[in-house]
Design a protein that fits this description.
Rossmann fold; nine-stranded mixed beta sheet; globular; AB_hydrolase_1; hydrolase activity; AB_hydrolase_fold
Length: about 290
């Protein structure tokens, strides 16, 4: 069931039963889910490449929502959101700002994962009054090493997954070790906990646009991160094969008010999902400090 922003909804206590709602953004409906306390600065979740609402780990969302108002949404043209998917990170950031303002917020925190971390960096620089604090996970700066190879890696993993009947997120998000494979399987089980009102998968057309945007970000000239004045928490696994972990260390070094979470051991791109309890504890501490 999808409801409008002004429709009455029951108070959901878990992400798996949070209703999907929509808000009109310049005539285009954006799908989102909202849970947690009503007071305080909300934290807006910015999704990874090809991700929809059902790709957020419910343990991360529920952990954050135990103390913070959390809002997850589908990018333009993705999942339950209308419109055409942009092929630049800057346009995605513009959409996210319009979405936040359509909900009536004048200040938010951001959690950007992978591609969502690219978007978060652009928003933090362009809208300093809108953004209070930022969490960047499994992501990197414009022009960061290896980022332009993400589209090729994604396509190879998707093809391999189709041939082996294995979800490509297992190889893209987790290490090929016993603990990594175990964590990956547990993560995929959690993503299936929601059984009703599930989101639509990304279309091939939208995926192409996002792949183009990510490749452009990886080939851009490095941006001046010294202008990002907000406090930023940076997190990743030690062995990120998508956005190489060195990018996380670079972000921590170049952002003037950064705080680095020690890289999660034997973890990859999905490190915040593999170590969800530790990540949530660190994130809440950062957001409330």
């Amino acid at each position: 069931m999808t409801t409008s922003r002004n429709s009455p909804t029951h108070s959901a206590s878990f992400y798996t039963n949070t209703p999907t709602r929509t808000v009109s953004v310049q005539g285009v409906d954006f799908a989102y889910r909202e849970l947690g306390p009503r007071e305080g600065v909300p934290i807006v979740l910015l999704m990874h490449l090809a991700g929809v609402l059902d790709n957020w780990d419910p343990r991360v969302v529920d952990g954050l929502a135990a103390r913070r108002r959390v809002i997850a949404f589908d990018n333009r043209g993705v999942g339950g959101s209308g419109g055409s998917t942009p092929d630049t990170i800057e346009a995605m950031a513009h959409d996210a700002v319009l979405f936040v303002r359509a909900l009536g917020f004048d200040q938010v925190d951001l959690l950007g994962l992978s591609m969502g971390g690219f978007v978060a960096q652009v928003i933090a620089e362009a809208e300093p009054r809108l953004v209070r604090k930022v969490i960047l996970a499994g992501t990197g700066p414009a022009g960061g090493p290896g980022i332009d190879k993400v589209p090729a890696l994604t396509l190879r993993a998707t093809l391999k997954g189709a041939l082996t009947r294995q979800d490509p997120k297992l190889s893209l998000f987790f290490t090929d070790t016993a603990s990594g494979r175990r964590a990956g399987r547990a993560f995929l089980r959690r993503l299936k906990e929601r059984t009703q009102d599930r989101d639509k998968n990304i279309s091939l057309l939208s995926l192409r646009a996002q792949l183009k945007a990510v490749k452009r970000w990886g080939r851009q000239s490095p941006s001046d991160l010294s202008v990002v004045r907000q406090p930023v928490l940076v997190a990743n696994g030690t062995n990120d094969s998508m956005v190489p972990s060195q990018n996380t260390l670079t972000l921590a070094a170049r952002l003037p008010r950064s705080e680095l979470v020690p890289l999660f051991p034997d973890a990859g791109h999905g490190g915040i999902f593999q170590y969800h309890d530790e990540f949530v504890t660190r994130a809440l501490g950062f957001l409330t400090s």
